[in-house]
Structure formats: structure tokens, C-alpha cells
Design goal:
437 residues; mainly alpha; 8% strand; 52% helix; 15 helices; elongated
């Protein structure tokens, strides 16, 4: 059989193959690394690349232990590729000798503080600032400053705008026609009886503590003390919730007494609108308040229309809403009344109860601010000292009501401080069992 032509073909010289491929002998490069060999380039040939050749495509550093740095440098010509080893002598540097020039880069305060903390063994990561709701404390301060500044600018613009509106003919005539109050029915009482002053104090005392305990109930995640009724072991609630509901009960009792006396003595005519004129007079009073030209009034005889609507809303709308929503969320509500629960779901009560509390907070802030802005001594004498006159200028220099008001604030502050488990637990034990976590 004739021999294969491929077998007769002469094998190319290995050196020629390596030179054409850009390789140089490994002996020319000191410390060259071994190369993994692969398949042959020709049938029946040796694995590629040859065992005695190494690549020289890039400069290669020799072993670092050598006294000199040998770098393989490739020199390429149109006919061949060669490599040479260049010995570079290391340049010693004496680090003990100062630099001959002034350094232009220095460590900043942050770098120095970081190094100081590292040497002292302190944690090198900055802790995440504590958040109060969606913002940190510093962010809340910034929001308060920006928001307060914005409100002041908006208030100033509103004052100038309303003053300009009241200077034009239609609105000036409107204010003259409706000065801000209307005459009460015949037989309406004048002045405040003593029971009204006491009711006012009890209401303020209770509503402040109710707001405090209500906010505590919303924010309390892990109560430290609990109260359980003696006849209902499964009715265990937190001590804070017990305190809140107990205050609610006292507030309801005080409110019922107030409403009964209100209608028995005729004082209801002072806070219940008796004429449709209340609405245009309320608009007039609001414009006068915004313009900082306070409406002329004498609370000992009659409230202005805006006050009357505010008091009516507070006593006959907000207070009942707070009661019926609070009862729905409390333990006295029947749990098994399926039809009643479907008609009046607890989710609706929760959505209404908190906004009602915000209304009371807003009412208290505005009410106290106007009491001091429209004649503090005279107004405090009316409600706390039961002193007043049909003459609006009477008792404007009497400090009796102010000192009684101050004493009431001390009592309220004492109740605020005392509203804690250490004080509440002995009182709660009189009506049930108190236990810890």
C-alpha cells in the first residue's frame, strides 16, 4: 500500500516554529514560568508549544529575591521578535532623612479623628442617629425652623391681605352689619356661676391627662405593668390603658354633670346658637381675628359668634365622638355582637378617635392663646375667680384669676408627673389585680 503523503511530509523544525510564533528559548529568560502544553500544530507532531520554549509577549519580572530587577523587554523587528533581559539596579532610599521639600498634602481633621479613635480602640463606624418617627432629632429641629418660618410668612401675608380686604367698601359694610356677635335671647344669664369654674378646672385636668395617657398607649410597645379585673381574668390590659380608660370614665361623669347644669341654669344659651346670624357674625369675627383687630367682646356677658360655634362643636360634637369611638375600642364593648360589630366596625372607631384627640389639642392651644391675647387678666378673672362686670374694662388690673390659674397649672403638672406605674399601681390594686411582665 502506498504511504500516506502526510506521513512523508517533513516535520518542521521546532526552533523555526517558535521563532515564527514570537517565542524565544526559555534559557534566554531567567526565572521564566512553565507553560501548559496543548495539542500539536501538525498531525503527528509534538504538543504545542515545544518543551524548551516560553512566551515573551510581555515584560516579565524575575524573582524578587534577586539583587537586581531583571525585566524581560521585547524588541520587535519586521523579520523577527527577540527578547532581552535588562538588569535594573535598585535605588536605595533612606527613610530616616527628612524630605528636602515641604509636604503639600496633610491629614484633615476627619483623618486625625479617625486615627485617634483607632488608637484608642473606639468603634470606627458612626452609629446611625436615633429617629423620632420619620426624622432624626436634628431633622425635626430643621423642619420646625423651616415650617415655623413658612407659617410666619404666610400669617403675615394673610394679615396684610385681610386688612386690605376690610378697607374696601363691601367688606367694611359687612363688618359693620355683623360686628361678630348677636344678642342672646331674653333671660340669658350674665356671668359665670362657681360650679362652672370648678367644672372647667376638672375638665382641663382630665383632658390633659387623657391626651398624655392616650399618646402613651399608642407608643407603648412592651408594657411593664398590667391590670386585670377580679371578676374577669381574661380581661388583662396594660396599666397605661387602664389609667386612660379610668380617666375617660371620670371625664364622662364630669361632662354629664356639666351638660345637666348647663341646661338647668340656662347657661346653654351662651354656647348653643339660637339664631342664623351666628354664621355671618362668625365670618366677621374670623376676619377681625386674622387682621389682628380683635372683635370687641365681653365674655362675662356674651361670646362672639366664632367662640360660640367653637364651644358648641367641642361640647356637643367632639366630646360625643370621643366617647362613642373610645367605648367601641374598649373592653366594655360586646365582642360577640356580630350584627352590631358589622354596623359599627372597630376600624372606623380607630380612624376617628385619634383625629378627635388632635382636635382637642388644637382647640386647647388656640383657646389659651386667645385668652392671653385678648385680655389675660380680665378673661382669667371671669373663669377662675368668678369676677366680672358688664363693663369690659372692669377687672383688667385684678390678678386674682391669674394666681388661681397658676395654682391650677401646678396641680395639672403634678398629675402629669405622677402618672407613672409607681404611683398608679397602688391605686389600680383597689379595683383589680396588678402584675408585672
Amino acid at each position: 500500500m502506498p504511504e500516506s503523503r502526510e506521513a512523508e511530509a517533513p516535520q518542521p523544525d521546532a526552533a523555526a516554529q517558535s521563532q515564527s510564533a514570537g517565542l524565544v528559548p526559555a534559557a534566554a529568560v531567567a526565572g521564566a514560568l512553565s507553560v501548559r502544553r496543548g495539542l500539536p500544530r501538525t498531525p503527528g507532531g509534538e504538543p504545542w508549544p515545544p518543551a524548551d520554549y516560553a512566551p515573551s509577549a510581555r515584560p516579565t519580572l524575575v524573582e524578587p529575591e534577586a539583587p537586581a530587577r531583571d525585566i524581560v523587554v521585547e524588541a520587535t523587528t519586521p523579520d523577527s521578535t527577540e527578547a532581552a533581559v535588562v538588569a535594573l539596579a535598585p535605588t536605595p532610599i533612606d527613610v530616616s532623612v527628612p524630605l528636602p521639600f515641604t509636604p503639600t498634602v496633610r491629614q484633615g481633621a476627619a483623618a486625625l479623628a479617625f486615627e485617634r479613635d483607632r488608637l484608642a480602640g473606639k468603634p470606627l463606624t458612626t452609629p446611625e442617629p436615633k429617629r423620632i418617627g420619620p426624622f432624626t432629632r436634628l431633622q425635626w429641629v430643621g423642619a420646625a425652623i423651616v415650617g415655623g418660618g413658612g407659617l410666619l410668612v404666610a400669617a403675615a401675608m394673610a394679615v396684610f391681605a385681610v386688612r386690605w380686604l376690610l378697607s374696601i367698601e363691601p367688606l367694611s359694610s359687612f363688618v359693620q352689619t355683623y360686628p361678630g356677635e348677636y344678642h342672646l335671647p331674653e333671660g340669658a344669664p350674665v356671668g359665670f356661676p362657681a360650679w362652672l369654674g370648678w367644672q372647667h378646672f376638672f375638665n382641663v385636668f382630665l383632658i390633659v391627662l387623657i391626651i398624655r395617657s392616650g399618646l402613651r398607649v399608642r407608643s407603648e410597645k412592651r408594657p411593664t405593668a398590667f391590670w386585670t379585673p377580679r371578676n374577669k381574668p381574661k380581661g388583662k390590659i396594660s396599666l397605661t390603658l387602664w389609667f386612660h380608660q379610668s380617666l375617660d370614665l371620670l371625664w364622662i361623669i364630669n361632662g354629664l354633670i356639666f351638660v345637666v347644669l348647663l341646661f338647668v341654669t340656662g347657661q346653654w344659651m351662651r354656647i348653643v346658637p339660637t339664631s342664623w346670624e351666628v354664621f355671618p357674625n362668625a365670618v366677621s369675627a374670623a376676619l377681625q381675628y386674622v387682621s389682628l383687630d380683635w372683635p370687641t367682646e365681653n365674655g362675662w356677658v356674651n361670646y362672639n359668634a366664632l367662640q360660640q360655634l367653637a364651644y358648641f362643636t367641642t361640647v356637643f360634637v367632639a366630646a360625643p365622638l370621643a366617647i362613642i369611638t373610645g367605648v367601641r375600642m374598649s373592653g366594655v364593648w360586646p365582642k360577640k355582637a356580630a350584627t352590631l360589630n358589622r354596623i359599627y366596625p372597630v376600624e372606623w372607631a380607630r380612624k376617628v378617635h385619634f383625629p378627635v384627640m388632635l382636635y382637642f389639642v388644637f382647640f386647647i392651644i388656640v383657646h389659651v392663646a386667645l385668652v392671653f391675647a385678648t385680655g389675660a387678666l380680665r378673661n382669667l378673672n371671669h373663669m377662675y375667680a368668678m369676677q366680672g362686670s358688664v363693663d369690659p374694662n372692669a377687672y383688667v388690673d385684678n390678678w386674682a384669676g391669674f394666681w388661681i390659674f397658676t395654682a391650677s397649672l401646678v396641680v395639672i403638672a403634678a398629675g402629669w408627673v405622677a402618672a407613672r406605674p409607681l404611683v398608679l399601681a397602688p391605686i389600680a390594686k383597689l379595683f383589680g389585680n396588678v402584675s408585672g411582665r
